[in-house]
Amino acid sequence: MDDATQPIQVFLLDDHEIVRRGVRELLEAEPDLQVVGEASTAEEALARIPAVRPDVAVLDVRLPDGSGVEVCREVRSQIPGLACLMLTSFSDDDALFEAIMAGAAGYVLKQIRGNDLVTAIRRVARGESLLDPTITTKVLHRLRNPSEEDERLAKLTPQERRILDLIAEGATNRQIGAELHLAEKTVKNYVSNMLMKLGMSRRTEAAVFAVKAGVGRNQHHS
Prior knowledge:
Largest sheet: 5 strands, parallel
Radius of gyration: 19 Å
Low-confidence stretches: 217-222
Distance between the termini: 56 Å
Number of helices: 11
Helix content: 40-55%
């Protein structure tokens, strides 16, 4: 088989089996698309994607054990030519910002029609970007004009950001551990490391800072 007739190899990451099954059936009906692997968690995806080396990875943004954005960043560091297409239930500026930073080629809502998803996969496989130019411009503006809060937040790893989100919501170390599947002692280490990066000594300071910076899943930007 020469390259011209080689099907586009696609990997699916979504924690809902019904979604994966629907997308797989949709793609397998196309002669030029082939599903070469699936995962329901970030951990599975990080193990399987480098093993099968697909052309396109369709990644759900929200996962039980992390984010498709982190998966995108991680696997693209191993397979630079991989095109990641982020799949999400709702439009979220912050997730989009992170997706662009992670090198995602596109971002589509789960409400997308089947044919449009097929077209999106073909386009990112060709090396095109599906990111709306106005959104990309907004992200570049944020990068070039970071607020003081943004600069301090930029020092944090995605996991530290997630812990800061939970601190902003008033969660204890034990609750954070339960939410992120981490030992309480591990959370404690994360928190002290995070406070050090932010130049703070108490978690109450971090909570106030987080709320001011608009961090936290329940925060509404004013």
